[in-house]
Amino acid sequence: MNNKRGRDRANHKCMLIASTIATMFLMAGFFAVYSAPVVNANDGGGGQPDVFIDKNGNCTWDSGEDAFYGTHAIQTAIDNATDGDTIIVNAGTYTESITINKSINLVGKPGAIIKCPSSPEDVYIQESDHHFEYVIAVLGGTYNSTNDTVYGPGTIHVNISGFEIDGSNAGTTDHYFAGIFIRNAVGNISNNYIHDMYGPSGNGSGEQTFGILAYGNSDLTVYNNTVKDFSRGGIVANGDLGGLPDPVANIESNVVIGNGLESATNWRAENGIQIGWGASGTVKENEVYDCMCNDPSWASSGIIITGTENVIVEDNDVHGNDGGITTVGYEDYKDAPCYNITIKNNQVYSNVVGIDAEANVDHVIIEGNTIHDNEHYGVDIWAYDFDWESSTPDNITIQNNKVSVSYTHLTLPTN
């Protein structure tokens, strides 16, 4: 479904759901209800609360609206909210790992910081074999407490805006770790600043960490966020390469900053923005830079489209990465071809390679891009001839690009 929004790009504006939300799948018992006090102004509460449910829709706490204070105030507000509520978080630092399993708006006022605790919440999902930890999770579907897994159909409508999300470098080698983790959700993720998403080392050397990571039957618009300090992916939408529904992500007007070129070897190869493994969508008007990896076996990409189809990458500013914009599909390594990808009107410069079309890709259009000052190639069409993958790009259209100081390169198999 199309995700229509009236876009007010000013930070920290209250977001209201404009239409009635129909059938919801709520996950009973997914998390404990914490004991932070619920204070009603009519029962003696006064002043500005930490968190409140904005029943009146004016972004201001009014007498009679439920208010929440202290430890786990945000989670307690979520537990007490009903579908369609807007939760306002006032300025302050909230050390919580929170789970959203109902249709709400979560809005941070200026200075609202959600800081990951030393032991964040964790979960499995049906679409992946990985075990996930998170600062914020948005989880539609059904929760099975026996195996700590969310599965099945059911989407929730959630908007999250206006927060600084501090990952506290809490990622561990046993889990994927995300600032905002999403499964089966429809909504907007906007105007957030996500940082310190490494592991305890404070660098990209071991843990696999992400700024925003989406799976499942999700339809998301991710815009005006700044993401940095991640080891694996800044903003990522992944499918399951199977029969389950895959996310649609419109990723627009974000700033994603990689690690730069580290002196150490064997760090993770971080990708700035990724749509892959059956997910689809658009990547538009983002700035992505400094995604680099000092490892001869791997390379980072500013934007990577992998193992999927029907993605448009346009009007982005991509610079200072190993690969600026990469599209790659597989035939042997995975049954994951890449098909019908359009890369147009981007500014691609000062990367090692500007634009790549690699291995099992078909019907890729590269047009109208301005490509300059890349170290090796402006456009690289690369057939793989390895033990683990042998496949060749096909039906690649390169037209109306402005290429300077770098050039187009074609590599074909040797056999």
Question: Descriptors for this entry?
Answer:
415 residues, 15-stranded mixed sheet, 45% strand, 14-stranded mixed sheet, elongated, 1 helix, mainly beta
Outline the fold blueprint:
Blueprint lengths: L37 E3 L10 E3 L12 E3 L4 H8 L5 E4 L2 E4 L2 E3 L4 E4 L3 E4 L5 E5 L6 E8 L2 E3 L4 E3 L4 E2 L1 E3 L2 E3 L9 E8 L1 E6 L2 E3 L12 E8 L3 E5 L2 E2 L5 E6 L9 E5 L2 E3 L13 E6 L3 E5 L2 E3 L11 E6 L2 E6 L2 E3 L3 E7 L8 E7 L2 E3 L3 E7 L1 E7 L2 E3 L4 E6 L1 E2 L4 E2 L2 E6 L2 E3 L2 E5 L4
Parallel strand pairs: 4-7, 5-8, 6-10, 7-14, 8-15, 9-12, 10-16, 13-17, 14-17, 15-18, 16-19, 17-20, 18-21, 19-22, 20-23, 21-24, 22-25, 23-26, 24-27, 25-28, 26-29, 27-30, 28-31, 29-32, 30-33, 31-34, 32-35, 33-36, 34-37, 35-40, 36-41, 37-42
Antiparallel strand pairs: 1-3, 2-3, 2-4, 9-10, 11-12, 38-39
Account of the 3D structure:
By secondary structure, this protein is an all-beta fold. Helices cover 2% and strands 45% of the residues. A hairpin with a 6-residue loop joins strand 9 and strand 10. The protein starts with 37 loop residues before the first strand and ends with a strand. The N terminus is likely disordered.
